[in-house]
Amino acid sequence: MKLVKPKKLLKGDVIGIISPASSTKDNTRIEKGVKYLEKLGYRVEVGKNVGKTHGYLAGTDEERLDDLHSMFENKNVKAIINVRGGYGSGKLLDKIDYSLIKKNPKIFVGYSDITALQMAFLKKTGLVTFAGPMLAVDFWKDEVNAFTEENFWNMITSTKKIGKLQNPDNENFYTLTKGRGEGNLIGGNLALFSSLLGTPYLPDFKNSVLMFEEIGEEPYRIDRMFYQIKFASNNFKDVEGVIIGRFVDCYIKDKESPSLTLNDVISDYFEQLKIPIIYNVKHGHIEQNLTIPWGLKVKLNASRNFIEIAESAVI
Question: What's the confidence (pLDDT) of residue 254?
Answer without folding.
Answer: 85
